[in-house]
């Protein structure tokens, strides 16, 4: 059997999660570098349509791993089904996007198979015959190249935005789609999930904002957010925040940018007093221009900033508001 | 609970560049602080006992002392520097070994650690124990059949899940507000049981890391960051120049 890379695409409630394209791109890149065969799988119930969607891209084959018990998602069902599937197909490398759902089941799946997951990777390197996977550590301050010390299958999850979903290659013809039915016995599934719902009506859609002024812990107190609000107003933009600010209730949850909030790619992202923890960065690294103000010269936010100011935001922001107002007035 | 380098601690690589030099200040992994807080609140609501466990060298005991001071009833310390180098699977294995014979109803962990950021230990532990689990939890309520938890999903979505006990939950930040230890709490902590578990006791559970950090390094910058310097007024002017001519938002 040829060595295979298996991309497990993610579907939620009958729709393909678009971040899966990034994983397919990663799989295609790895396949071309290693010479291994690329295959993909979609897990769920009644998902042959999604499997066909995935098959429109360059891959040797796409599997629809089916069982009525796979809808709704539960970690027990997904780990069970994929364990059975992977044991029968024996891929060398299993790739998934690092989504909340994947985080919920892939460590369980790997452990049940006596394997390990290198999770939240931002890239990979091929060193001779060995593959190493790069991941961020210490909130992005350091990077680690990690290798597997066990037999395949090797499980890897890739961070949101690590690969370009829009760069995924289309094949000459659609890949074959094969349905694999899985029997999931009674007693396997222990959780009983209810309907997915959105909390309080979202007042603002930050993904539509061209300019975002965002605050982090450096803002120190709730009343200081007024300063950021004035800057946002002067620029004609929206205010946003990193998670800790929303956890404290200083701004509503729909202003949160990051892995648990919104992902934005505005023309301008101005980060005030934000250190740049990974969970925040994944939500804004696609911004066209990133300006960061932070007291700490080592703050990871400076790794992705186009323009950086190492200094106290309380010194910088007031004159900045003035200058912006002046510039806008003169036109 | 895990002890991790302080958020703003300057990190230096060790000689072999596969780990950091440990001469930094440490603190409790923030997500774990939320897990502890939630455990304490559940105890306040329903009675019972809160135990805390950590693995690491002597310095890690600080995390347990703080937890006891906040209201945890007893602590378990797997004490050895060797525990620091274990991957999530081995860590979960030694925890499972250390709590053999205990009758916990619920095990909480933070949703990930601020140093490794794997987000795996809790889920692996559930699998090893054969318990159901749920991750990124924002709310826990007791029910007739066990618990009802509120799972956070991406993009502002949530989901309630009914689960039997015992179960493992990984807890999201913002589920609650962290309390401070009181002076009385700190005093009382001194008398609370702290069981030490030596490496030798749990050694059989470890079988060697299944993954290896080949090297640790300062990430290569892909961006050409321009640092703007000068007085606040000068920087403000420079920024406006960039906003106008580069970002083109003015």
Secondary structure layout plus pairing:
The complex is a heterodimer of chains A (331) and B (250).
Chain A: E1 4-9, E2 11-12, E3 15-16, H1 20-34, E4 37-44, H2 48-55, E5 61-66, H3 75-89, E6 93-97, H4 100-112, E7 117-127, E8 130-137, E9 142-148, E10 154-158, E11 176-181, E12 192-198, E13 211-215, H5 225-235, E14 238-241, H6 243-247, E15 268-272, H7 278-281, E16 289-294, H8 301-304, E17 307-310, H9 313-330
Parallel strand pairs in A: 1-4, 1-6, 4-5, 5-11, 6-10, 7-10, 13-14, 13-15, 15-16, 16-17
Antiparallel strand pairs in A: 2-3, 7-8, 8-9
Helix pairs in contact in A: 3-4, 5-9
Chain B: E1 3-5, E2 26-28, H1 30-46, E3 51-56, H2 61-70, E4 74-79, H3 88-98, E5 106-110, H4 121-129, E6 133-143, E7 146-152, E8 157-163, E9 167-171, H5 183-189, E10 194-198, H6 199-202, E11 211-217, E12 226-227, H7 232-245
Parallel strand pairs in B: 3-4, 4-10, 5-9, 6-9
Antiparallel strand pairs in B: 1-2, 6-7, 7-8
Helix pairs in contact in B: 2-5, 3-4
Structure description:
The complex is a heterodimer of chains A (331) and B (250). Chain A has helices spanning 20-34, 48-55, 75-89, 100-112, 225-235, 243-247, 278-281, 301-304, 313-330; strands spanning 4-9, 11-12, 15-16, 37-44, 61-66, 93-97, 117-127, 130-137, 142-148, 154-158, 176-181, 192-198, 211-215, 238-241, 268-272, 289-294, 307-310. Chain A contains 9 helices and 17 strands. A 9-stranded mixed sheet of chain A has the order 9-8-7-10-6-1-4-5-11, with helices on both faces. A 5-stranded parallel sheet of chain A has the order 14-13-15-16-17. A two-stranded antiparallel ribbon of chain A has the order 2-3. Chain A is α/β, with parallel strands linked by helices and 331 residues long. With 250 residues, chain B is an alpha/beta fold. Chain B has 2 domains: 3-205, Rossmann fold, CATH 3.40.50.620; 219-250, no CATH class. Helices cover 29% and strands 27% of the residues of chain B. Chain B has helices at 30-46, 61-70, 88-98, 121-129, 183-189, 199-202, 232-245; strands at 3-5, 26-28, 51-56, 74-79, 106-110, 133-143, 146-152, 157-163, 167-171, 194-198, 211-217, 226-227. In chain B, helix 2 (61-70) packs across helix 5. The longest helix of chain B is centred in the N-terminal third of the chain and has 17 residues, at 30-46. The model of chain B has no long low-confidence stretch (mean pLDDT 94). Strand 17 of chain A pairs parallel with strand 12 of chain B.
């Amino acid at each position: 059997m040829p060595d295979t890379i298996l991309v497990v695409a993610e579907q939620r409630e009958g729709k393909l999660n678009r971040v899966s394209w990034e994983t397919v791109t990663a799989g295609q890149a790895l396949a071309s570098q290693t010479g291994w065969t690329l295959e993909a799988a979609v897990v769920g119930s009644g998902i042959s349509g999604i499997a066909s969607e995935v098959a429109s891209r360059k891959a040797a084959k796409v599997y629809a791993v089916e069982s009525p018990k796979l809808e709704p998602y539960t970690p027990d069902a997904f780990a069970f089904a994929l364990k059975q599937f992977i044991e029968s197909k024996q891929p060398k490398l299993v790739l998934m996007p690092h989504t909340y759902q994947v985080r919920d089941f892939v460590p369980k799946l790997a452990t049940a198979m006596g394997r390990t997951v290198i999770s939240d990777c931002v890239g990979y390197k091929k060193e001779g015959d060995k593959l190493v996977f790069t991941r961020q550590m210490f909130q992005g301050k350091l990077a680690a190249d990690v290798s597997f010390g066990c037999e395949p299958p090797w499980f890897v999850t890739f961070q949101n935005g690590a690969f370009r979903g829009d760069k995924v290659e289309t094949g000459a013809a659609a890949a074959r789609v094969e349905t694999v039915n899985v029997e999931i016995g009674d007693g396997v599934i222990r959780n009983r999930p209810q309907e997915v719902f959105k909390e309080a009506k979202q007042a603002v859609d930050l993904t539509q904002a061209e300019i975002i002024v965002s605050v982090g812990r450096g803002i120190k107190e709730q009343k200081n957010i007024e300063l950021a609000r004035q800057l946002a107003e002067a620029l004609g933009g929206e205010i946003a925040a990193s998670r800790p600010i929303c956890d404290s209730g200083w701004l509503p949850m729909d202003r949160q940018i990051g892995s648990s909030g919104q992902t934005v790619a505005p023309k301008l992202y101005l980060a005030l007093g934000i250190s740049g923890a990974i969970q925040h960065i994944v939500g804004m690294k696609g911004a066209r221009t990133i300006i960061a103000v932070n007291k700490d010269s080592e703050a990871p936010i400076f790794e992705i900033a186009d323009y950086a100011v190492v200094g106290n935001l309380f010194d910088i922001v007031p004159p900045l508001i003035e200058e912006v107002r002046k510039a806008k007035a003169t036109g | 609970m895990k002890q991790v380098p302080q958020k703003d601690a300057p990190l230096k690589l060790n000689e072999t560049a596969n780990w950091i030099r440990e001469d930094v200040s440490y603190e409790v992994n923030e997500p774990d602080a939320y897990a502890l807080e939630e455990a304490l609140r559940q105890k306040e609501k329903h009675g019972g006992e809160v135990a805390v466990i950590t693995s690491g060298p002597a310095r890690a005991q600080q995390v347990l002392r703080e937890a006891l001071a906040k209201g945890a009833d007893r602590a378990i310390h797997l004490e050895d520097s060797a525990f620091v180098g274990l991957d999530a699977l081995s860590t979960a294995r030694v925890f499972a070994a250390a709590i053999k014979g205990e009758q916990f109803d619920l095990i909480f962990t933070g949703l990930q650690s601020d140093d490794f950021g794997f987000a795996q230990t809790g889920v692996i532990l559930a699998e090893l124990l054969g318990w159901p689990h749920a991750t990124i939890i924002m709310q826990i309520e007791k029910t007739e059949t066990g618990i009802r938890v509120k799972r956070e999903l991406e993009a502002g979505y949530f989901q309630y899940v009914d689960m039997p006990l015992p179960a493992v939950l990984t807890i999201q930040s913002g589920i609650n507000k962290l309390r401070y230890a009181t002076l009385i709490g700190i005093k009382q902590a001194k008398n609370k049981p702290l069981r030490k578990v030596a490496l030798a006791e749990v050694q059989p559970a470890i079988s060697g890391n299944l993954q290896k950090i080949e090297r640790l390094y300062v990430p290569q910058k892909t961006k050409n960051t321009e640092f703007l310097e000068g007085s606040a007024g000068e920087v403000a002017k420079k920024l406006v120049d960039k906003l106008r001519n580069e970002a083109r938002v003015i």
